[in-house]
Amino acid sequence: MTSLVFYIFATILIFAAIRVVTVKNPVHASLFLVLAFFTSAGIWLLLEAEFLAITLVLVYVGAVMVLFLFVIMMLDIDHKTLREGFGRYFAIGSFVAVVVLLELYMVFKAKGSDLATTTAKAMAEDVPNTVALGKVLYTDYLYPFELAAMLLLVAMVAAITLTMRPRRSNKYQEPSKQVEVKASDRLKVLKMPAEKAE
Amino acid sequence: MIKLLGAFFLALGLIGAALLGVVYQIWLSSPWQLLWLPITVVALLLMVAYLTYAERKIIGYMQIRIGPNRVGPRGWLQPIADSIKLICKEIILPAKSNRFLFIIAPALAMAPALAAWAVIPFDDGWVFADINAALLYLLAMTSLGVYGVIIAGWASNSKYAFLGAIRSTAQIVSYEIAMGFALVGVLMASGSLNLGDIVRAQSGSHGILDWFWLPLLPLFVVYFISGVAETNRAPFDVAEGESEIVAGFHVEYSGMLFAVFFLAEYLNMILIAALTSIMFLGGWLSPFADTPLESLFAWVPGVAWLFLKTSIFLFLFLWFRATFPRYRYDQIMRLGWKVFIPLTIVWILVLGVMVVSEFAWFAPAVSSTV
Question: What is the least distance, in Å, from the CA of A126 to any CA of chain B?
């Protein structure tokens, strides 16, 4: 039963992932990406990693992709200009693809990290996944965890500084400028001839 | 036409899949419980129907009108008449809309609203899926509802609908953060992500005073107000904003497709009300526990208490709508980002001190998990 569910999810995932790059409309592409995230969350659930699976849905599907869609829908995208650079980007794109494939091969097949022989550490049956993860994060991996948090904080501060437009909303006086003002700067005496009353 | 049929079946499939997952989960634990599934769904839909009736009646009385009183005795059949009308109406598809997305959008709004009910404990042990990460699951489900709105707004190919969708998206994403932080407070106080354990953590020897509304008072208020904002209800209903963008994201929808959006909105209202009562008002616990009245009310089933508490919040939803004028958009954003989020963060720190120092409510040490 589990493997049947896995194959159904995997098929949907691969289909969705392929459609992300082949579909013409960017909005459809990002919706397929949402589907891909959702099905991979399903696969994680099969691994009994419920915390990671639900967080994937919560963070990526619920927040990140919503903002993606938000931006993509706002853009006025011309499909023709989108396809123009295909030849130009093909070379570098295929280079990146080869590098990624090599890396994947190394991860899967290198000695010592062969996935077929590596088994996940057995978890205690009565400890929920979330509790186990929390314990590991806040004890063994405390420093990496805090570092990641700092990194995110720095990124957030940077993003806010980049987009902040300081706006002078409060009206204040500068005394030095006030003192330097002369009457001739502000006051202009005009001579007007008196009009005749008829 | 074929594309249209496809979209229709996909929409059905989405709602079906949401239900199927629940069915499978129940089948694993106890097959006879499956009988409760149709009963619950029908009860929820009836609640939605009569919530619309209650809304019109209550707001009517608040505005010194009578409200619907023509169909059936005292207008009790009004929601039935309304739903028959909506089912019979023609579904209009805008000429330049994206038909596929246009049709599945209501289903995308509806499916998470239904699926979230799978983890709600109606009474001690009365829960379809007693999972440990229930609180996270709920947060994920409530945040998925936004897809219905945003896809509807985009697929309609209408400026009003699109503006409504954009407003709603920004609003939901902002208020989700405050909501999440409020839930962090609940998690800290109860020491569990399981809703059943959260309710059990609120039982104690002081009855009402043991419920989380008191130690988590600011979070309680923030959670409920964020919930009102998440469901796009007045005074946060700029996504609909009849006075400026006609009806927002569902301006192009008619007939049954519109009705599904309507159902989803009201289901979400009931969900938020039920969640607030579960997490802050002790869920199925009796308010008379540890008072002389306790034995007098011992015959009342827990689900009745939950229903009563939920009704309080549903009444508040309607009261808000009758009382407050719609917020201006920048005011909504300011309230969410500059008031609620800092408030919840400060209270989480206070709560941390209270939990660690085993202050009053947390005296017997939070020991429900591990």
Answer: 9
Residue B363 DSSP code: T
Q: What is the pLDDT of residues B169-218, one digit of tens each?
A: 888 888 888 888 888 888 888 878 888 888 888 877 777 777 888 788 88
Facing residue for A130 by CB, picked from B132, B154, B173: B132
Contact between residue A27 and residue A73 where contact means Cβ atoms under 8 Å apart: yes
First-to-last alpha carbon distance for chain A, in angstroms, is: 107
Extract the tokens encoding B221.
Answer: 């208020």
Handedness of CA B344, B350, B355, B359 (dihedral sign): negative
State which residue of chain A sits closest to B105, comparing Cα positions. Answer: A31
The residue whose two tokens read 């805090």 is A146
Helix (H) or strand (E) run with residue B272 in it? helix B255-280
Q: How far is A173 from chain B (nearest CA, A)?
A: 28
In this prediction the pTM is 0.80
Contact at CB, B150 and A66, closer than 8 angstroms: yes
Chain A residues whose CB is inside 8 A of the B149 CB are: none
Task: Report chain B's terminal Cα–Cα distance, integer Å.
Answer: 57
Q: What is the pLDDT of residues B327-354, one digit of tens each?
A: 888 888 888 888 888 999 899 898 888 8
Report whether the peptide linkage leading into residue B235 is cis, meaning its omega lies within 30 degrees of zero.
yes
Cβ pair A57:B162 closer than 8 A: no
Q: What ipTM does the predicted assembly reach?
A: 0.76
Give all strands (DSSP E) within chain A, no chain letters.
Answer: none
- Side chain identity at residue A154, one-letter code: V
**How far apart are the CA of B139 and the nearest CA of chain A, in angstroms?**
7
Which residues lie below 8 Å from residue A41, measured CB to CB, with a gap of 6+? A53, A54, A56, A57, A61
Long-range CB pairs of B247-250 (<8 Å, 24+ gap) are: B247/B160, B247/B164, B248/B153, B248/B160, B248/B161, B248/B163, B248/B164, B248/B165, B248/B167, B248/B168, B249/B149, B249/B150, B249/B152, B249/B153, B249/B156, B249/B161, B249/B164, B249/B165, B249/B168, B250/B152, B250/B161, B250/B164
Please list every residue in chain B whose beta carbon sits closer than 8 Å to the beta carbon of residue A131: 369-370
Give exposure, B270-297, as e/b (b: 16+ Cβ within 10 Å).
Answer: bbbbbbbbbbbbbbbbbbbbeeeeeeee
Residue with tokens 């009245």: B293
Distance, in Å, from the CA atom of A69 to the CA atom of B310, rounded to the nearest integer, reads: 34
